[in-house]
Design a protein that fits this description.
By secondary structure, this protein is of the alpha/beta class. About 40% of the residues lie in helices and about 25% in strands. The protein has 12 helices and 15 strands.
Length: about 400
């Protein structure tokens, strides 16, 4: 049952950087809607830091996610541990908890399939909500651009999209946040995480993977996933991968994707190491419009995504040039104060190139994601992004990595 004051009680599995930098501050802003009542982490020290820093000192602490999922202290669970998120999400759903699941969901298609089955079963039995934490789909600038681009894409009028993700090390941004880095995680847990990663590579690529592709696979799952789901929201599900390559020891990759109705996407993800200049942009070209979406840096709360919309439109009726005639009527004018272009010796100006620069809003994408989650739970709103789309994204990235080649 929710808290007596009607707030949704949240348990958090994984108290690391993303919880500390993003989710806990957002939940503190939305404390009229949510209350954090439980934490789960392998590090007791991390949970102690989080409790003191974010005012959840009275919440329960668990080191086993199964105990949190079974607890009567929580109504909903944020799943954001290191590695796969599927076992934790399924366990929470099994106990009737609503789930907000961070990316990447998993590197295994069998896990993603099991997640879909558990989500659909929980929804059918008890109306339990599953929402993927695809925060860029909640961004005001993205949604503004989507309202222009998606109808054109559905009509076959988007011919080409440039999609670039220029990424510096996250540490260049995280250094400014008081993130507690655990020192008390058991060595056995670290060994298990490495073994899980190696097993995922073996399952995806076989015993002799391309060295550069294997090095890039984690970045594809962990960072390019944002571009994959953003492009799906703009253009629909991808239908083919024309070519794909990885270079720079797995720090850079590019591909050409095909989408419904003839759209093509030229995609690149580039690691610029220590240059602190995040850049994620999508430029969609239609027959009479160009939409240039530049996404905000997610770690900067006040940053805003922007949209440039370029079109052609008729020029205003040519007025008399300022400084001549003083706006007086002249013989042959169509109306007082307007000079006939033929009488002045030049043709009409015709259509004009017009550019609008739009900042759709400064509301934080993560905060909007939580507000939507609350509406899904309390008002029956349909989740914007569910389990099946996450499963399809997992399948697409695995296939993308498999057809990529190191160069």
């Amino acid at each position: 049952m929710p808290a007596p004051d009607g707030r949704i009680r949240v348990g958090i599995i994984g108290s690391g950087a993303i919880a500390q930098i993003i989710h806990l501050p957002a939940l503190r802003q939305l404390r009229h809607l949510f209350e954090v009542t439980a934490l789960c982490d392998l590090s007791a020290d991390t949970m102690a830091f989080v409790s003191e820093t974010f005012g959840v000192a009275h919440g329960a602490h668990f080191t086993d996610y199964r105990d949190l999922c079974a607890s009567d202290l929580v109504d909903a669970v944020l799943v954001c541990p290191l590695g796969t998120h599927v076992p934790q999400a399924i366990e929470a759903l099994r106990h009737g908890k609503h789930v907000l699941v961070e990316k990447p969901l998993s590197s295994r298609l069998d896990e993603a399939d099991a997640f879909v089955a558990a989500s659909e079963e929980a929804r059918a039995k008890a109306g339990t909500v599953t929402l993927m934490a695809y925060m860029k789909r909640f961004d005001p600038g993205y949604q503004y651009a989507q309202r222009i681009v998606r109808p054109l894409a559905d009509q076959g009028e988007i011919r080409f999209v440039e999609a670039h993700h220029i990424h510096s090390r996250n540490e260049r941004y995280m250094d400014y946040f008081p993130v507690y880095r655990a020192t008390d995680i058991p060595a056995s847990a670290r060994d298990a995480a490495r073994a899980e990663h190696e097993a995922n590579l073996l399952r995806a690529f076989g015993p002799t993977p391309d060295r550069q592709v294997a090095a890039a696979f984690g970045g594809m799952m962990g960072s390019s996933i944002h571009d994959v789901y953003a492009l799906s929201g703009l253009l629909g599900r991808p239908v083919a991968i024309s070519n794909a390559e990885v270079w720079d020891d797995g720090h850079c990759w590019r591909a050409m994707f095909e989408y419904p109705n003839g759209a093509r996407v030229n995609y690149a993800w580039i690691d610029i190491r220590d240059v602190r200049r995040f850049q994620q942009e999508f430029i969609a070209y239609g027959p009479d419009v160009r939409v240039h979406l530049t996404m905000a840096m997610p770690f900067i709360a006040g940053d805003a995504s922007t949209v440039r919309v370029q079109r052609m439109e008729p020029s205003p009726v040519d007025p008399a040039p300022y400084g001549r005639h003083d706006g007086a009527a002249h013989p042959g004018d169509a109306k007082p104060g307007v000079v006939s272009p033929d009488g002045e010796g030049w043709p009409t100006a015709g259509t004009a190139h017009v550019e609008s620069f739009v900042t759709a809003g400064y509301d934080n994408q993560f905060k909007r994601e939580w507000q939507h989650f609350h509406a899904c739970i309390t008002r029956g709103t349909e989740p914007l992004v569910g389990a099946r789309e996450a499963r399809d994204d997992t399948a697409f990235i695995i296939e993308w990595a498999r057809v990529s080649r190191g160069v």
